[in-house]
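Morning, I've got a small favour to ask if you have a moment. I owe you a coffee for this, so here goes:

…
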Amino acid sequence: MKVKNRAKPNLPPVEPGVYLAVCIHSIDLGEQLCEYKDKGKRYNNQVQLVFELAGETIEVDGARVARTLSRTFNFTRGKNGGLRKFVQSWLGKQFSDETFGEFDTNDLVGMPAQLSVILSESGEYANIDTIMALPKGLPAPKPTLPLIRFDLEPWDDAAFAALPDWAQEKIKKSTQYQKDHLPAETVDFPPEEEGKTAAPVGQAPQVDTGTGEVCPF
């Protein structure tokens, strides 16, 4: 059985269309390893913006919860950067490199928006395609979920603990978290016994499980 035939999303996607929404989270994800088709792998500092869709709910474990969608962006201030284009479309104004460099994504939290949502090619996922401000005179939707503004610097243990589990796991992969919050101690293996061969450099030692199979630590 192929993995893709079983690894389906837990929740059905929202239908494609236009939704009223409000930004509820601006989460600094830190420096994440990204892979590009034409550039290979590189590290980028990222932010995730999460939107609550007005009036859209779904049942999860017997309770009705609000539907959300998110977009992740690299922190770039150039005119061709995805974050800058997204914010300019949302706010309806242009930024220079300098003024956008001073822009704080936390200021977006609580702001209403109109989202155009499309489905992925497989139809399994809903994605935010475009964003605009609300039409004049249209009342702004009110969020029902907590508003979150999270920055990696300065670090705040309580703020990190309040993040959703998925956000915590993503941040733990960042270079900043790996550097500042993981134990620095190394594990010393006992000296190799006579007659046994050490593992090659860069390869973890292996242990016999007693079943005839050899597994890494």
Residues 82-91 form the longest helix (10 residues). The CA atoms of residues 7 and 75 lie 31 Å apart. The two ends are 28 Å apart (CA to CA).
